[in-house]
Every structure is written in structure tokens, then in C-alpha cells.
Amino acid sequence: LKEIMERNGCQPDVVTFSTIINGYCKRKNIDKAVNMLQEMSRKGIAPNVFTYNTLLDGLRKANKLQHACKYFKEMQLHGIVPDVIGYATLFDGLHKNGHHDPMALLREMHNNGVAPSIMLCNILLDSLCESGRVKDAKDFFSNLLSKGLKPNCTMYTTMIKGLCKNRLMSEASELLRRMEDNGCFPNSRTYNTIIRGFILNSELQNALCYHDIMVNRGFEAEAETMFLFMDLLSSDQLSDSSKELLQKSFFVGDKL
């Protein structure tokens, strides 16, 4: 397309180049996408935030995080302030590649006047919880609430998962209660998350209690949850009476 335009005396602009870069990224031809960006520079055509966001996303999907960070810095050197999409793309790449300290990026966002989206907040929460920084995650979550941001079900579930992983089960239960009080209702993932938390923390009664609530609300146990219950039945961790209770409460409820 670009060559046809040039042969006909029509010079490609930033929209044309951005579209071509997007096409190369979708086809996973990252080298050609980068070449297009470099050609823009040679022709004196300034990329815009959409151009960089497109390339950042392509680099993230290709697991070329170092290159993504390089172009993220380059866009700022060119006077382009990243938007929430660019930050979310980089956050996601950092998280999935095991880089669990995204707070510097969050501070940079704040300094640039970019408000985090729900999706970005969820990525950050998950990253903090996965790295064991549950206090930072709780502080961040509380800060969001104080600023009037309404977390969605995914964010609540992520925070509950982090609390469960760090054996803070009473806080996980309290957060689930607050979640409902705030008009955000748990889904199957939320219930399965807290049930697995109680099982892994050897609190069978609470696990069964939440299982009953979950079933009464029309949700079912996920495969991972079922495996944990079945593993308990085949282990020596439970008394015969506890195993009988488990069979009646769990397996009857799930029609197994």
C-alpha cells in the first residue's frame, strides 16, 4: 500500500505508517514493524501515541520486553506522553515476564497525570500479590477506594486471591463481605478462589460453608477446587466424620 501511494505521488502520513505497523504486529512480523517506525524517522514523519501503543503491544506479545521498554522511553524522549493504554501494555508485559516491581511506573503515571484504568489496577494488584507484597497491594486497593474508584469483580477477586495466598483468610472473608455491601456481587471465580484458600489453610468448615453459598447462588466448583476436595478425601488429614461431612456437603451439592 505504501509503495503504491508513493508511486502515485501520495506520501504516506502517520496514519498510513501506524496502520502498516499494526498489520505487521498482528502478523507477528515485529522486525518489519520496527523498520516502519525507523523509516518514519528517516522521512521526518513523527509517530503519535497510537503508533507507539501498537508497536508496544506487538513487542509485548512477542515477549520482547526489553525492546518494549526501549520504545516506551523513546516515545517520551520525543515529547509523547504515554496514555493509559501504553502503561497498561507495559505493566502487563512486566508482570507476565516476572518483573514484580511496577510501582515506579505507577508513580510515573501519576506524575504525568494519567489515571490508571480498572484493567491496569488489576494487573498491578496481581503483580504485588504474586510477589508477596500484600501490604502494598492492600494499601493500593484502599487508596483506590478512598479516591472513589469502584473496583469490579475481577479486582476484588484478585485482592481476595492475594489475601488467601498470604494466609489472611479473615481479611479475605471480610473483603468478600464488603464487596457485596458495595453492590459488586461475587462470581464463580471469586467463590472458588476463597474456597481453595480455606482448603489450603486447613479450614474445611469455612470452605464447605462458602461452597454451599456458591452452589445456592447457581455456581459450580471449578476443576482445581474439586481436585483439592478429592485430595482431602484420599488423605489422612481428615477424620472419618469430617470426610463424611465433606462427601455430603460437597459431592451431593455438585451432583457427583
TrEMBL record:
Record keyword tRNA-binding present: no
Keyword Repeat: yes
Swiss-Prot/TrEMBL keywords: Repeat
Repeat positions for PPR: 13-47, 48-82, 117-151, 152-186, 187-221
GO annotation, cellular component aspect: chloroplast
Family: Belongs to the PPR family. P subfamily.
Annotated protein name in UniProt: Uncharacterized protein
Organism listed in the record: Opuntia streptacantha
Upper lineage: Eukaryota, Viridiplantae, Streptophyta, Embryophyta, Tracheophyta
